[in-house]
Design a protein that fits this description.
- This protein is an alpha+beta fold.
- The protein has one domain.
- The protein has four helices and eight strands.
- Strands 4-5-6-2-1-3-7-8 form an eight-stranded mixed β-sheet.
- A hairpin with a 6-residue loop joins strand 7 and strand 8 (about 205).
- The longest helix is centred in the middle third of the chain and has 21 residues, at about 90-110.
- The protein is globular.
Length: about 200
């Protein structure tokens, strides 16, 4: 059995709904890279501070963009699934498998339409994750990710001058995409809550 300690940032209203239903709803946006599921930042080792900070920063970003209003909440939970329903791309062999599948699907699409273009990289990755998920009946995908919401990421300046994103080739967070209908998600509780004034500034916890 695989067990992950996870954190999820959302509005206070959404958090109350999740607690009432004892269930995280799926996000089906094709820009989330790992396909349909609920998204979490994973705790690594005994220190939850970085995962919590990332969950909070992403929620502050949503508030700043007007997607959420009012209070924010960071929810903690435990995600469990059987080993055969788990794919961890922190494992180099699993990452290689992902890329081999990526090329197979790309060549299939190009064979059908030599001028085929993906709308963006996230859509291309989502296609691969969804295909693997269907073939292997996965409940949880854990994957290193680039995450540019942290203020430190915006401070890097490069000699080339052009915009560079991601800022580094080394992923800075680990995230999990969870099928909450097949994985076990338990011990859901509010880890932190507060209100945000003026987007990133004035966080009152």
């Amino acid at each position: 059995m695989v067990s992950l300690k996870c954190f999820h940032g959302t509005s206070l209203d959404n958090a109350q709904s999740i607690l009432t239903e004892n269930h995280f709803r799926h996000s089906d946006a094709d820009s989330l890279r790992m396909g349909i599921g609920a998204y979490f930042f994973c705790q690594c080792g005994d220190n939850e501070a970085y995962a919590v900070r990332c969950a909070k920063q992403l929620e502050m970003y949503h508030i700043n963009k007007g997607k959420h209003t009012g209070g924010y909440a960071i929810l903690s939970c435990t995600v469990e699934c059987d080993e055969e329903n788990y794919m961890d791309l922190c494992d180099p062999e699993k990452m290689e498998y992902f890329h081999q599948m990526r090329y197979i699907l790309l060549n299939r699409d190009l064979k059908t339409d030599p001028l085929h273009k993906y709308r963006n990289a996230a859509v291309a990755d989502t296609q691969v994750f969804d295909a693997i998920r269907d073939m292997r009946k996965l409940s949880v995908i854990r994957c290193p990710q680039f995450f540019g919401m942290l203020e430190e990421e915006k401070k890097f300046v490069f000699n080339k001058g052009e915009h560079q994103y991601p800022k580094t080739y080394v992923p800075n967070v680990i995230m999990a995409c969870v099928d909450t209908d097949s994985a076990i998600v338990k011990n859901i509780e509010i880890f932190e809550e507060g209100r945000c004034q003026n987007g990133y500034e004035g966080i009152v916890g």
